[in-house]
Amino acid sequence: MSSGTILLIEDEDEIAELLALYFEKEGFRLVHADNGEVGLQRLQERSPRAVLLDVGLPGIDGMEVCRRIRSASDVPVIMLTARDSEIDKIVGLEIGADDYVTKPFSPRELVARVKAVLRRSEERPAKPKIINVDEFAIDSGRREVILPDETVVRPTAREFDLLWYLAENQGLVLSRSQLLEAVWGYDYFGETRTVDVHVRQLRKKLPEIPIETVWGVGYRIGS
Ligand code: CA
Predict the structure, then answer these.
(1) Which among 52, 89, 168, 215 is least surrounded, fewest beta carbons within 10 Å?
(2) ∠135-139-145 over CA atoms, to 5°?
(3) Ligand 1 centroid to 104 CA: how many Å?
(4) Contact, 7 vs 31, CB < 8 A?
């Protein structure tokens, strides 16, 4: 049985050929587009379950392609980035990507990430629920945070998932690897930075939210 179609938007043919092998072995069909315009077209024609999107593309760059995908679709997007310096941009610009991997990556890890993203996107909580942390109301139905002065802040999808997990475990210290596993859904490969970058973004958007750094361990929300 086919696991579905994955769309790869990537200008390097070698990467495309390699990934096609790995994904086909796992039962996926990999559709390849070598630039953003063709990619957006394929997205419409093929309705893939997930998109793998290179940041450095000729023509429209990957960031912009991601924004355009998001304006039309909720399909999970995993960014492929060649430079460390692009990571903060991917996370910070709220382009709506679900995950990213840094080149060179192992195709097996990428397959694992795709499966994790698919699992998560199919397991979204059915019942809206609100958790209060101090004067903040975190609403999992609307995926937004209501501030004490009633202002509404909408973090990105991943930031919200991280905040929600912290809030569900209010008062407990959670390690970075626990957070990675719970929110990103894969075992810790050495990128604690991912958690730190997302916490930093949350603090920027919600300066008063009581997320505490527990030195040498991880993070805790509330008391
Ligand atoms: Ca490229």
Answers:
(1) 215
(2) 55
(3) 12
(4) yes
How many whole angstroms from 64 Cα to the centroid of ligand 1?
14
Ligand 1 center to residue 127 CA distance, Å? 40
What is the rounded distance in angstroms from the CA atom of residue 212 to the CA atom of residue 93?
24
What does the pLDDT profile of the chain (223 residues) look like in tens digits? 577 999 999 999 999 999 999 999 999 999 999 999 999 999 999 989 999 999 999 999 999 999 899 887 888 999 999 877 777 666 656 678 888 888 889 999 999 999 998 888 777 655 568 999 999 999 988 899 999 999 999 998 889 999 999 999 999 999 998 898 888 876 545 577 889 999 999 999 999 999 999 998 999 998 7
Q: Which domains does the chain have, with CATH numbers?
A: 4-122 (3.40.50.2300), 130-221 (1.10.10.10)
Q: How many CA atoms lie within 13 A of 51 on its CB side?
A: 34
> Ligand 1: distance of its center to the CA of 16 in Å?
11
Residue 187 alpha carbon to ligand 1 centre in Å: 27
Q: Which two tokens stand for residue 170?
A: 């209010």
CA of 109 to the centre of ligand 1 (A): 19
